[in-house]
Amino acid sequence: MTTTPAGSPAPTRHRTWPRCRRCYGIALDLGSARTRAWTSGRRTILDVPTLTSPGPGATCPIQRGTIVDTPGTARMLDRLLGPHLPPCGQPLLILTMPVLAGVAHRAEARTAVEILRPRAVLTVPTARAVAVAADADLAQPLLVVDLGAHLTEVTLLVDGAVTDARRTALGTSDLDDLTPPARIAEAVVAMVTAMLDEDRTLQTLGALRRGALLAGGGALRADITRPLAERLQAPVQHVRAPHTAGVRGAARLLHAAHAHPSSVTDSDAAQPRRLASAPAP
User: Could you tell me the pTM of the whole model?
Assistant: First the structure.
């Protein structure tokens, strides 16, 4: 260990992942249809169906953005990530959350991830993780539209913090002959209109004029994004690889936390806000 001129110990320089075992980390995006994870020991994103077990008899432990089977979610995480954990390690875990996830969902998620023996759990709103993945300018109000399989959320970020959000239990998996893609566009327009009507600061209008940032698998569907842009009468753009934007943003926050381990405590979204300038994984 080196010392400063005054004689006090200097911070130990970290080794790079995955060799820095004490700072092993997991970025996790628990979706209703897909679970995506990045760990400091892997170079690729794990992207699998959100199911309690493979094969017949499997159930979905997360529905419409809500954990309905906490033990099943824990078993799924143990099966998917348990083999990748170092024997004696306690990972730092950054977990994305639907913006309007309630206290109960947050508590259930924290209970489920305990199977991974984390030394600390940081939660971050999915919309903020998406903005980080997109290298968005968080100094300006930003409108994030997450078009998921079972849930659609619209979030206004101001200085990187959530100031307004709406959601609907409608996603791309619901589309069929009776529910055309335009239905999702209509739902998003209705939510944005409500936000505009209730915003006395004009921040929502400013964000809309700059263009909505689209994430989720639905962002790749022109039959959703085209009518959405027409009805909003505003530009829309999707982040690169929008279906994995949430976990990639969480991974960037994880990299930043690795560079500043002394700042890591068991907390919620306020902690990652200071760490959003980390390099991409």
Answer: 0.84
